[in-house]
Design goal:
Elements: H1 9-20, H2 34-48, H3 52-65, H4 70-79, H5 86-95, H6 102-115, H7 119-132, H8 137-149, H9 153-166, H10 171-183, H11 187-200, H12 206-217, H13 221-234, H14 240-251, H15 255-268, H16 272-289, H17 292-308, H18 312-328, H19 332-348, H20 353-373, H21 377-394, H22 397-413, H23 417-424, H24 432-444, H25 448-459, H26 467-480
Length: 481
């Protein structure tokens, strides 16, 4: 499918030598330069610790020494702060498959399937990798994460624990285990994992960030803030911690203070990624406060950055954000216009066809929501059926949950409350808006006890910088006060 790079026989021999000289129990690293390999490993270690900006520079330095270093391209593809650059770097790695080890080929093929939203194919390829390299903790971690991403947390824990049997000091696994236990509401185990994570890499920011997120979810806002401050004291440009800080302040009803902290990040930003992080936090703070007009204006500013950088994915995401804001404001025709802008952008892009198809299906879902809000239920059902058919064909659990969410939303608007509850219970339960919708359905059925239980759960989700949550938090709180 992609143009292959021209490689000389001498380089191939050198690469095979480096690969064969490594420990066979791990996925080999194919490169013609030992120095490039060392740089790559340093970048990989930083990427493991979510220090993406620093990691990219090491991957780039490795490529400066060996332009045919396939796994360095993968490192850049999945660490790049500009998501539009993921595809071209992935394509460069794919072009180098003929000259690398089978393990690396499988890793690249799995990465391509991941980008194409093909969960079953990713798992098949990673399992094949696992057969070849059963003692590679990274492969166990990869398989575990495929289950984590589809919210199959018990299965993910099983494979994360297998990774730790191989390497008890492999720190990323403790982070993921903490989140898996957190999503299962096993907060004691989650805390143990995050504390171990801190113990292993105390001079890194992410352990404090992750623990801060757990503390925020259980309502310990001040303690959470201290951990986010600790993360930023370790690394002042660990930008996601600013979102955690701001979220805590929003939930303490200190929205102006939250935005002031984000404004400081905006003014000191070193690149457009950091600016977008700040803008996103400000947008969500305004939404949570109930000022959708201000949120809309800031989103327009953020989109301008993406336009200036020709960042197609960021522009598309900003159109979707504008569309969702317009939906909440009851401006349905304008929302549809924003979603159609995204469709046009995808159509004109040079992304692989499968990515375009996935994008079109997600926009189809948003346009169906516009239809149901305008009481065009026939068209909404048609789009929902089309989306479910595609999600089922892909056998993607997350997309199937989205289809159930859409059917539940339609049933709610049609006043078919029991059907709405049935569908919404099969939707993404980590989305507080779905919990709020279930509460509305029970309220309409006159079941105040269950309604209040769901309103309370939605109101106190306490998630980091989550747009869906910000739309309904105060509405849910008003229902239980």
């Amino acid at each position: 499918m992609f143009r292959k790079n021209s490689i000389t026989i001498i380089v191939i021999m050198l690469m095979l030598f480096v690969s064969c000289s490594q420990e066979v129990s791990k996925v080999p690293i194919t490169t013609n330069s030992e120095e490039a390999k060392e740089l790559y490993l340093k970048g990989l270690s930083l990427a493991d610790r979510l220090r993406s900006e620093e990691a990219v520079s090491y991957f780039e330095d490795a490529l400066a020494l060996d332009s045919n270093f396939a796994m360095a391209y993968i490192g850049i593809a999945f660490s790049r702060l500009n998501p539009t650059q993921l595809v071209p770097n992935l394509q460069k790695a794919i072009a180098l498959k003929p000259i690398i080890s089978r393990g690396e080929q499988l890793w690249i093929e799995a990465s391509e399937a991941q980008v194409n939203n093909q969960t079953d194919e990713v798992r098949k390829l990673v399992r094949e990798m696992l057969e070849l390299y059963p003692q590679d903790e990274r492969v166990h971690n990869y398989l575990a994460t495929t289950y984590f991403q589809t919210q199959e947390f018990q299965k993910s824990i099983k494979y994360y624990l297998q990774a730790l049997e191989i390497n008890p000091k492999y720190s990323p696994v403790y982070n993921q285990l903490g989140y898996a236990y957190r999503f299962l509401q096993n907060y004691n185990e989650a805390e143990k994992m995050f504390q171990k994570y801190i113990e292993l890499i105390p001079n890194d920011p992410n352990p404090y960030d992750s623990y801060g997120e757990l503390l925020m979810q259980i309502g310990k806002f001040d303690e959470s803030i201290r951990n986010y401050e600790k993360a930023l004291s370790v690394s002042p440009y660990f930008t996601i911690s600013y979102l955690g800080l701001a979220s805590n302040l929003n939930y303490k009803e200190k929205h102006v203070e939250a935005r002031n902290r984000l404004q400081k990040l905006l003014k000191s930003s070193k690149n457009n990624h950091q600016k977008r992080v700040a803008y996103n936090g400000i947008i969500i703070s305004y939404i949570d406060e109930g000022n959708l007009t201000a949120a809309y204006k800031v989103t327009q500013k953020m989109r301008q950055i993406a336009i200036e950088e020709s960042d197609t994915i960021a522009i598309a995401n900003d159109y979707i954000t504008l569309g969702s804001l317009l939906l909440e404001m009851g401006r349905y025709d304008e929302a549809a216009e924003q979603y159609n802008n995204t469709l046009l952008l995808l159509q004109k892009s040079n992304f692989p066809e499968q990515i375009k198809i996935n994008g079109r299906q997600n926009i189809l879902l948003n346009l169906a929501i516009v239809d149901l809000k305008q009481s065009n239920f026939t068209e909404a059902h048609k789009k929902a059926d089309d989306f479910l058919a595609y999600a089922s064909q892909q056998n993607n659990p997350n997309s199937i949950r989205l289809a159930n969410q859409l059917y539940g939303m339609i049933a709610l608007e049609e006043k078919k409350y029991e059907s709405a509850i049935e569908y919404l219970r099969k939707s993404d339960q980590s989305n507080p808006y779905n919990i709020y919708r279930i509460a509305l359905a029970y309220e309409s059925l006159g079941d105040s006890e269950r309604a209040n239980s769901y309103f309370d759960k939605a109101a106190h989700a306490n998630l980091v910088s989550n747009r869906n949550y910000s739309y309904i938090r105060k509405k849910a709180l008003a229902k239980i006060q």
